[in-house]
Amino acid sequence: MEGSVTNMQLSEKITGNVSRSVNPHGLERMMAQQIETVRQRGAYAGAKRALILGGSASYGLGSRLTAAFGQGATTISVGYARPPHDDFLGAAGWWNQVYFKQAAERAGLVAQNFNANVFLNSTKQLVIDYVRQRLDGPIDLLVYSIAAPKRINPENPDEVWRSVIKPIGAPVTDFSVDLEREELVKQTITPATPEEIAATTHVMGGEDWELWVTALRSAGVLAPNCKTILFSYEGPTATAAIYHDGTLGQAKRAAEASARRLQAKLGPTGGEALISVNRSATTKAAAVIPGFSRYCLALLQAEQVTGTHETTVEHQDRLFRDMVYGRQRQVDELGRLRPDAWELAAMTQDQVARILPKITPATFTRNLPGYQQYRREFRQLSGFDVPGVTADFDLTELNQWHD
């Protein structure tokens, strides 16, 4: 960034349900708060060297936070987020990586970020080389937390698979929150074609997860007792048509099949391949799922009554502390970990069932408690609406980051 002006006033910009601006200082404050959340719960025995695929935001970032500041692990994060360029301040994920590494190193922990395409073979080799050359042992925790719009076919670079969020078999009409206009809008989503279903499964299923495990094992950088985990979602009946029964749900069923194949390979040496069915969360990826945001408003409002709300880092810390490495595993008939049990508990869903029909375009208001919390959580993903943080930013700060 060139020019004589170094100070700027940051302005928030939301287009539809996509945030197109960032406040780095707000993200720094949010990172400090999340680290403190983990630290207050104390240290626990877990991984020594964790590889987080998709560690720049959401459940991937939450996993990395509890691995580093709860377990004391060395952490490697792989995932692409746009860095600052010209008059663009960079994506929130890029800053999350920067601030995480800075905080980890202050705490005496090793933290490495690779801002790269997780699907590429060259990225896998980059990580393998780093583990061989720089770490004192193999990876003993592999987290797969990737939500991506597309993936190149590794066997045919000319073919690109693109994921879609669509129902299967019949169209779905539902209401979603438009965060830009702050209103509820009706959407009708046409059913996915067979080709779209297949492409979404290639991108969002477990294929690449299996490729990562295979590559790391073949290179001798995966510990025999390694635990690897991929995140899924079930949700209630209210979201089933667009999620569980749609293209995303189909992809997650494929990921569960991947987990079974991986378990057959890792189990004999003491390793584990796990699926965790996580709770609904305010994330940038979830914000664009048709109808999902309306359910989230009702859920957040219900949880204000039941007192069962968790932030992403709280959820992930409980998952790893109690279930992955602890003795409080909650599993279903398919063997999947179920930290989402709090969300799906009868007392919470009964509240949701009462609230959801009342959230319509005619009754929607910005003062709705669930909406206020949803919008605040969404804005904080980009560093806005963070208490004590101003909109001032000094562009010369960019010169000190060489991530």
UniProtKB/TrEMBL annotation:
Stored Gene3D superfamilies: NAD(P)-binding Rossmann-like Domain (3.40.50.720)
Domain Trans-2-enoyl-CoA reductase-like NAD(P)H binding: 11-85
Assigned EC number: 1.3.1.44
Catalysed conversion reaction: a 2,3-saturated acyl-CoA + NAD(+) = a (2E)-enoyl-CoA + NADH + H(+)
GO BP field: fatty acid biosynthetic process
Keywords: Fatty acid biosynthesis, Fatty acid metabolism, Lipid biosynthesis, Lipid metabolism, NAD, Oxidoreductase
Record InterPro entries: Eno_Rdtase_FAD-bd_dom (IPR024906), Enoyl-CoA_Rdtase_cat_dom (IPR024910), FabV-like_NADH_b (IPR050048), Trans-2-enoyl-CoA_reductase (IPR010758)
EC supergroup of this enzyme: oxidoreductase
Keyword Hydrolase tagged: no
Ranges for domain Trans-2-enoyl-CoA reductase catalytic: 90-325
Highest taxon in the source lineage: Bacteria
Pfam families: Eno-Rase_FAD_bd, Eno-Rase_NADH_b, Enoyl_reductase
Domain Enoyl reductase FAD binding per the UniProt entry, residue ranges: 331-392
Pathway(s) per entry: Lipid metabolism
Gene Ontology molecular function: enoyl-[acyl-carrier-protein] reductase (NADH) activity; NAD binding; trans-2-enoyl-CoA reductase (NADH) activity
NCBIfam families reported for this sequence: PRK13656.1 (NF010177)
Binding partners and assembly: Monomer.
Protein name: trans-2-enoyl-CoA reductase (NAD(+))
Organism: Levilactobacillus parabrevis ATCC 53295
